[in-house]
Amino acid sequence: MMLRNCWIRHLRFAPLLLAGAVGVTACDFQVVNPGRIMEEDLNSDAAVEALVTGMSADFSEEYDGVAFIVARASDDMAGSGSYNTTNFFRQGIIFNDEIQGEWEGTQRARWVAEDGLRRMQEEMEGYEFGGDEPTARAYLLAGLANRVVAEAFCNSTVSANAPLGGVPGGEGALSTDEAFQRAANFLAEAITHGTTAGEQDIVDAARGGRAQAYVGLGDWANAVLEARQVATDFVYEAIYSNNTDREENEIREETHQREEMSVYDTYIATIDPPDPRAPYTNCPADPDACSDVVKGADGITPYWRQEKYPDKGSNMAVVKGTDDLTPAPATLDEGWIALDHERHLTLWMEGRRLHDLRRWNEENRTIMPAVQFLRGEIIIAGDNMYPGLSIRESCIPIGFSVGAAKDVPTGSAGGDGLFWSSVDRYVRVQRYVAGVIEKPLTHREVIGSALKVFNPRLVTERIDPRYAAALLRLQSDAKRQGNPLPQGFGLEVLGLGQTRCLDPASDSDGSNTTHRSIRWK
């Protein structure tokens, strides 16, 4: 009762207080927080250094993530872990929905650098844009971010001459030539501004980056011209530290905290004596050095731990003067093998290997270990459990973030690589093209599209287990999309000594069964 009376008493006073407040017209009740940072306060020359530091941080944050994918999907490392992605990558299969974070992070690094340049030029009051060190460094980071897109991914989504901070989506899936040329354009600006500012390290890094971009464009004359101006001992690095999780080197985390990939039974492991450019510890031979961990996270693969990045703060090279850019004579097998050997060691676990595999994949170069691996002729650790495709994926498909592209892109050209990219596109078409095309496809149209890909391979009743896995994913995806497959499209999958009929209405899709063959009902 007392509380109620107290509440009523306060209500009676409220009109009086309000009346008094209205009557006092001379007072200013506006409150200003002296510690608040307004948006316009950031558009000043005082914020330029912080802005460019953020560009560098975003680049480093994603560069090691891309390198982690490339290491597992190429012959840099052998999969020894338990991640679902590691199993697929070892087979040469890279699904779009497994790389969303890396695609978005790489695009963020590119956009932050490009849009930051726009702000520095148009909105930063008091900042002298031309010939200043932050301007040169921002152009360098924008160029290198575009180079990562061009080398690691199957497509670009921003054309070479799009405005600063171009947003993916308006032009659809483009050739990586657009990203290589965009990189070369930004790096040319970095050279101009870096020269004026007297920043030789930026100039050298930009020349090395331009050489890499020209390699991607097949412009060997300009590649050699730029590369020859970079000292052999020059290195430009992505920076890491142990301050926060975001700043830590991811490859170190996945090999020293986990055992997700191993040097065991890779090309690097065959080099005797080991090359100092690719250091590792044979844990079974020296268990004390590995805290008695001798198997990978899969519990099977012998664990040979990489030592190139032993610390959380181990930096990662982005541009090197030792990056051998001169093509070996096409008629000399020894030359191609030597080129493969040197680039593999020089760029080991720096996120560059898939691009070499892709550009070397020609009939007259099958003597190269890189091409043999890409074509499934070399089996490394783990591939006995997870047989690889006859042509592995040699690039990361672009993600399906909002606005990523108008058209779903094709992955690696040719063979099973194209087949898997096609399956991946068709079984996810309803989920990812919503809003991109006018009318979503029905499940029958999705299945029909997939069958156009599968039919040539259904010559006999028995097909490779990985195609059975893809069909299971088709069924599972259809259910998640709210369009379960009709009974007429049921699959009969023969497991190990047993027959299993997959019921579309069932909660189980049989994904944990090891499948040996498949029949359509």
Task: Explain what this protein looks like in three dimensions.
The protein has a three-stranded antiparallel beta sheet, covered by helices on one side. A two-stranded antiparallel sheet has the order 1-3. A two-stranded antiparallel ribbon has the order 2-6. Helix 5 packs parallel to helix 7 (200-217) and helix 6 (176-197) runs antiparallel to helix 7. With 521 residues, it is mostly helical. The chain has 16 helices and nine strands.
Inertia-based shape: globular
Helix content: 40-55%
Q: Numbering strands along the chain, what is their spatial order in the largest sheet?
A: 8-7-9
- SSE pattern: HHEHHHHHHEHEEEEHHHHHHHEEE
Head-to-tail CA distance between termini: 77 Å
SS strand fraction: 5-15%
Major beta-sheet overview: 3 strands, antiparallel
- In angstroms, what is the radius of gyration? 28 Å
The averaged pLDDT comes out at 74
Strand segment tally? 9
State the secondary-structure class.
Answer: mainly alpha
The number of distinct helices, counting runs of at least 4 residues, comes to 16
Poorly predicted runs? 1-24, 382-388, 402-469, 485-521
Layout of helices and strands:
Elements: H1 2-23, H2 48-73, E1 78-79, H3 84-91, H4 100-122, H5 133-152, H6 176-197, H7 200-217, H8 220-227, E2 235-238, H9 250-257, E3 261-262, E4 280-282, E5 304-306, E6 316-320, H10 333-346, H11 353-360, H12 369-374, H13 415-427, H14 429-432, H15 443-454, H16 465-480, E7 491-494, E8 499-502, E9 517-520
Antiparallel strand pairs: 1-3, 2-6, 4-5, 7-8, 7-9
Helix pairs in contact: 2-4, 2-5, 4-5, 5-6, 5-7, 6-7, 7-8, 13-15
